[in-house]
Amino acid sequence: MNKNILFFCAIALLTFTMQSQSCDYYWRDYNGMIPDDAFPGGKDKDGNDIYIGQIYVHCYGLCIGPIFPGRREVEFYCWGTNRVTNVIKILCTQRPDDLKWLTTNYSTFHLHTINKNLVIGGYDGKAEQVHNYYIGRIGYDGMVQIGTADSLTAQTVYFYFLHNNKEFYRIQTYESIHNPDLYNPVILDPSNVVIVNRCCFSIITSNHHIDINDNDVYIGQAYIHGHGLYVGQIIPGETEIAVPCYGVKKTNYLIKILCTKHKENFSWLKTNAATFQTDTIDRHAVIGGYDHVNNNGVLHVGRVMHQGMLKFGNIASYSVDTVWFYFPHKDKEQRSGSYQVLIYNKREP
Q1: Is the pTM value of this prediction over 0.70?
Q2: Rounded distance between C-alpha atoms, residue 65 and residue 238, angstroms
């Protein structure tokens, strides 16, 4: 089984008032192996578990589809039929009994889910109005079908899925996944009340992860429409993140934060643009994003000190010869040839 315990935990809005609370669900990178803590979404015709995948699709967003054990490829519906083998995550939890399926339908979804902590499965980045995808399922053809509950409008939330190369859309009755015990309003100020998915914020930090004012800083991943997934810096109290992405792009939604319950398994490795590919031989460098412009490839998590401040950003490791590190500073994209890369040190159980 895949022992990689790294994950990006999706949150509705960045807030750092819940650091002591434990994780309830999270997304791990999927590479063809089912992690021990993967959450099963149902059974196939032979009684085998089917799992829930989150897939990045360029210019479309983060989509939802079924993961079958032993299959690297995921087939799913997202503005039509899609098949991919990379940039896939799998839904995981250490408390599967806390996640429940709620029966609902297209016209009453928003009423049925009042005060319920729905699991956000992805985002529609192609529609004129970017919005959440929620995880849905139905029983069809003797097995569970995993797909998308599309929350584009307040009046109708239809369910969509793909089965045997056939697209099924605008399904009216289905189930959606939620945690009934996690309705937690968090008051940021008297005029702003938000609901936050409870996540693990005991992330990869040390006394070196501070800014010039001795404030903690965190590692974030942001979806930038038309470009991909990029690494940036999360500052407590700020809801916007800046990422290096062909210049500096800023966003205050579609953000994830890097989490782990075993920070002792991680370390930072000094490297540079000329020796990155050899320095990381037989090492597990942490993937932080994906540059889809010209289908460049994966980006690793890096950091550097710049003008007295710690900066997180993208290592453009898709380059074979010269691997630069990019980070934002004062609204400009900066480049460095010397930096540190985040390494996951695999440990035997």
Answers
A1: no
A2: 32
